[in-house]
Automatic annotation (TrEMBL):
Family matches, as SUPFAM superfamilies: lambda repressor-like DNA-binding domains, Periplasmic binding protein-like I
TM annotation in the entry: none
Alphabetical list of InterPro entries matching this protein: HTH_LacI, LacI/GalR-like_sensor, Lambda_DNA-bd_dom_sf, Peripla_BP_I
CDD domains in the cross-refs: HTH_LacI, PBP1_LacI_sugar_binding-like
Organism for this UniProt entry: Streptantibioticus rubrisoli
The protein, known as: LacI family transcriptional regulator
Highest taxon of source: Bacteria
Keywords, in A-Z order: DNA-binding, Transcription, Transcription regulation
């Protein structure tokens, strides 16, 4: 029986191409630090020897894994946004010849374990922290990783970041409602108050800023917190419908919540937008089909740009470590926003119930 032919090694390719083993690794990984002539010789030698570079072999020679890790919350937090951003990351990294390694953290116990073990230290060349806020202690732990860290879908001052300006985007959307004539505008947001929440606070700031610029008073009772799920949104909308004065518009933290709001309002016989306008945030793929006015952001672009930023940092490690990319947003008017009804305009001008300033938790009792 004939002996099995020995598989070619990186050293065999290096000898045949007349270059060093490290040059073979760089050339086959597509890195730009190899001359065209050397790359051609390496690729020709690899084809003739039927050699394919493995990640483990490359790591032994260069100390690099060819992988980028992403740390993210479970998809249930924002399934469309996180899933689309992750797909964009994978696409961008693949074009750069890099693999994606995902660490999903769904609760505080898993989070504590990740920051205690820091598995990305030995498994990846860089880390993307996606869509949750780190404590100062956790930031310091990531500094110990010894690899570049990029923040995606959040602005981390002094750190490499890819994000949208949630304050400006929310301000623009609420200003649209004000320009239509609305003066009694509610804001519906998730009741989750933990560090997995990354954009909610900035959207609240933008909402409040638009009201202030328009000279409209602040009313705590109009900022309503909803628990996850359809039941939580129904209870939150129930709170709004029980107020002494019905809001004429509601700015909802995300499109996925806005879809539930539309369903609840219509099931209660509240005409949208005739009696109440609804504004979302995201431009979810279903937003156009549901004719939802919204503030659009590109989850795909956020992922792709984060991957591109990581790739550029790995290629130019001496560059600015705090470089950042701001993803543009745009307001998309559709059929769920319109001018307020005439009777509401009369009330807001002083002919009806005056606005209150409730301080109690609006979800209490539901």
């Amino acid at each position: 029986m004939a002996r099995e032919q020995r598989q070619a090694t990186m050293a065999d390719v290096a000898r045949k191409a007349g270059v060093s083993v490290s040059t073979v690794s760089r050339a086959l990984r597509g890195l730009p630090t190899v001359s065209p002539d050397a790359r051609d010789r390496v690729e020709r030698a690899a084809r003739e020897l039927s050699f394919a570079l493995s990640r483990s072999a490359s790591s032994l020679v260069t100390g690099k894994t060819g992988r980028v890790a992403v740390l993210m919350p479970g998809l249930e937090r924002a399934p469309w946004f996180l899933g689309t951003a992750l797909t964009g990351m994978a696409s961008g990294l693949s074009e750069a010849g890099l693999d994606l390694l995902v660490y999903v953290v769904t609760n505080e116990a898993e989070r504590a374990e990740f920051f205690d073990r820091l598995p990305a230290r030995r498994n990846a060349d860089a880390l993307m922290v996606t869509s949750f806020i780190l404590t100062e202690e956790e930031r310091e732990r990531l500094d110990d990783l010894g690899v570049p860290v990029v923040f995606a879908s959040q602005h981390a001052p002094g750190r490499a970041s890819v994000y949208v300006d949630d304050v400006a985007a929310a301000h623009q959307g609420v200003r649209h409602l004000i320009n239509l004539g609305h003066r009694h505008i509610a804001h519906l947001r998730l009741a989750v108050e933990d560090s997995f929440v990354w954009s909610a606070q900035d959207r609240l700031v933008g909402y409040r800023r638009a009201l202030k610029e328009a000279g409209l008073p602040w009313d705590d009772s109009l900022v309503v917190h909803a628990e996850y799920g359809r039941g939580g949104v129904r209870r939150a909308v129930g709170w709004l419908l029980s107020l002494p004065q019905l809001p004429t518009a509601v700015f909802v933290e995300s499109d996925e919540m806005a879809f539930e709001v539309l369903g609840v309002l219509r099931s209660c016989g509240i005409d949208v937008p005739g009696r109440m306008s609804v504004l979302g945030f995201d431009d979810h793929p279903l937003a156009e089909a549901m004719d939802l006015s919204t503030i659009a952001q590109s989850a795909w672009d956020t992922g792709r740009e984060a991957a591109g930023l990581v790739s550029s940092i790995l290629a130019e490690p001496c560059g600015d470590p705090a470089r950042h990319v701001v993803i543009p947003t745009r307001f998309i008017p559709r059929g769920t926003t319109a001018a307020p009804p005439q009777d509401a305009a009369a009330v807001s001008s002083g002919g009806g119930t005056q606005w209150g300033a409730a301080s109690a938790d609006p979800t209490e009792g539901f």
